[in-house]
Amino acid sequence: SASVFAAVQMAPRDPILGLNEQFNADPNPAKVNLGVGVYFDDNGKLPVLACVAAAEKQLLEASKPKGYLPIDGIAAYDKAVQGLVFGAGSEVLQAGRVATVQALGGTGGLKVGADLLKKLNPAARVLISDPSWENHRALFTNAGFEVSTYPYYDAATRGIRFDAMLAALKAAPAGTIVVLHACCHNPTGCDLTPAQWTEVVAACQAAGLVPFLDMAYQGFGEGIAEDGAVIGQFVASGLQFLVSTSFSKSFSLYGERVGALSVVCADRDETTRVLSQLKIVIRTNYSNPPTFGAQLVATVLTTPALRAQWEEELAGMRLRIRAMRAALVEKLAAAGVPGDLSYITRQKGMFSYSGLSAEQMQRLRSEFGVYGVDSGRICVAALNSKNIDAVAKAIAQVS
Ligand code: PLP
């Protein structure tokens, strides 16, 4: 008799993980992987932050028993996340208006939020930026939503189609969920200015939208507080909204899956009810979160000396990326790439949206062993003093 799974079709490969496989198989000794969204140090290595190593040592020495965590995670962790996202001691926290749960990375935070929203309003539609992080569409689609886009990137100006974006938000039906990148937009690196955020907040309020802020790169743009400032704007508006947090990049803890979801509610009572529903979403998906990564982050965030060290190390990553942006501009110009390259230093976060076509990106791979995404996205955080010359020369050759 036929297998139960006989009708299962082959799913398409994840484009970025597929790129990794291709990179690993490439025998070119000079190959450079600028595809993935991962920060590497100047030696091309995934860093172990010193603050994380210290916290790890502390935790391993204490050798605690491995009991189940509460469904919503480590209380001290959730509180530390709230302090980081909303500002310790902020009014919204004092008023008990934020429900925060530990989640499996930023992706887990998005999914728990999506599942909550689906239960609340099954007919709601989701708007993501055009373009957006690839997984946004897939994640919200798989949570049962119809997903469409709002205008965002403008290839002609290498900026944001702000008027069109605002018009789309204003025209969206009430209850529409709008996924917004809090900072360091992936893939374009183009962020809204504080004044533009003010208009976006007002548009969300006027149209009765449900903002869902994805904060995967806090600290990689201008700084921890600066990158989080948009949250303050949404709080000040009095709107209810959601924020997903990822520590994958900011603590270099990718595989530990450390993130969170925070839901800003109208009052304390509503927050308690929302939290109870979040717990059901978690309980029926994976019961409760893992311990180690969140313990590391909680230890670092709540130990003043480690916290200071983390802020310094995060600033180090931010500044190294900036230095690579400046160097790339210089080296591209020196290699004869014409035109205004200042967009590279204007873009925020780990990526540069190079404007290169899929065909040019393919040539970079096959002729030079330089691997970026077909959309033209390259990871600036994977450039270093050893590979940047070759990358700049290769880009110049295909430009
Ligand atoms: N959101 C955005 C915009 C991202 O770029 C990423 C990671 O690449 C995530 C969420 C997911 O982060 P995590 O690995 O913590 O799930």
Blueprint (SSEs and pairs):
Elements: H1 15-25, E1 32-33, H2 50-62, H3 75-87, H4 91-94, E2 98-104, H5 105-120, E3 125-130, H6 134-142, E4 146-151, E5 153-154, E6 159-160, H7 162-171, E7 177-181, H8 194-207, E8 210-215, H9 224-237, E9 241-246, E10 258-264, H10 268-283, H11 292-302, H12 304-334, H13 343-346, E11 351-353, H14 358-368, E12 370-371, E13 377-379, H15 388-398
The chain binds pyridoxal-5'-phosphate.
Strand ordering within the main sheet: 2-10-9-8-7-3-4
* C-alpha geometry: globular
Separation of termini?
56 Å
Instruction: Give unreliable regions as ranges.
Output: none
The CATH class assignment of the largest domain is Alpha Beta
Rg for CA atoms: 21 Å
Separate helix tally: 15
CATH architecture of the largest domain: 3-Layer(aba) Sandwich
Can you summarize the main beta sheet?
Answer: 7 strands, mixed
How helix-rich are the residues, as a percent range? 40-55%
**CATH topology value of the largest domain:** Aspartate Aminotransferase, domain 2
Topology as a string of helices (H) and strands (E): HEHHHEHEHEEEHEHEHEEHHHHEHEEH
Structural class computed from helices and strand pairing: alpha/beta
What's the β-strand tally?
A: 13
Tell me the domain tally: 2
Mean pLDDT, as a whole number?
Answer: 96
Small molecules bound: pyridoxal-5'-phosphate
Q: So, the CATH homologous superfamily of the largest domain?
A: Type I PLP-dependent aspartate aminotransferase-like (Major domain)
Task: Name the beta content range.
Answer: 5-15%
